Amino acid sequence: MQKNGPIALLFHALVVGFVLAPLVVICLVAFTPENTLTMPTTEFSLRWFRAVFEHPDFVTAFGNSLWLATIAASLSVAIAVPAGLAIDRYRFPGRDALNGLFLSPLIIPHLVLGVAFLRLFALIGATGSFLWLTLSHVIIVTPYVLRLVLAALSGLDRSAEQAALTLGASRFTVFRRVTVPMILPGISGGWLIAFINSFDELTMSIFVTSPATVTLPVRMYMYATESIDPMMAAVSALMIALTAVAMVVLDRVFGLDKILVGEK
């Protein structure tokens, strides 16, 4: 195996530092006792974290985002698993077009999707509905689940499925007892990535939320237009922590290399 030279290692370190530096700064600012966005110098304080949980708008928005992300990720799995099986295992007219249709939200700017959904919901009288907000999130997170499901299926040894069929198991039993456990890392990883993307979604959500369905990123944006104080840093630090914990759990349970890269 060829090892990276010192120049390559230095370049990688600079890239990692460039990515992580803003996250570290915002997390440190969240612990400031001051009223402005400053780094804590003499002491650390949980003042702004308490302020977040005492702010009813942020608590409500967090609940909306949590429910929305959970439902959207679960529905995307329900769509992506059968779609992935069909695309991976069958050859039929329009197969490539179907695959492209499912993955198209990855290349369409969310600003464009937001305007399109806003116009569509206005035409059918569905503006402000949590149901339609959920469906719009399902559309933009399903590609992430589908990609991981397809990756899991592409490396699947079908001999175990064929053995189960030979022994008399029904196709549904084979799917439930053999196929799903074998592709579970891809399904779980896809669900978690879909959850994170739905929870963090801002650009499209601005156009399709209502006062009753405001999500946490939208609430943060609205708050930032009125005032800038360390509470924003505290909310951001909580979101960073939530994402980091989710990725660590996923890595410990299944392994990120296995899910995202496909390593055995």
TrEMBL record:
Cellular component aspect of the GO annotation: plasma membrane
Domain of life, source organism: Bacteria
Biological-process GO terms, alphabetical: transmembrane transport
Similarity-based family: Belongs to the binding-protein-dependent transport system permease family.
Gene3D superfamilies: MetI-like
Pfam hit, one: BPD_transp_1
Spans traversing the lipid bilayer: 7-31, 66-87, 99-124, 130-153, 174-196, 231-250
UniProt topology in membrane: Multi-pass membrane protein
Keyword terms, alphabetized: Cell inner membrane, Cell membrane, Membrane, Transmembrane, Transmembrane helix, Transport
Keyword Transmembrane: yes
Occurrences of domain ABC transmembrane type-1 (ranges): 62-250
Protein name: Putative spermidine/putrescine transport system permease protein
The UniProt record lists the keyword rRNA-binding: no
Compartments, record wording: Cell inner membrane; Cell membrane
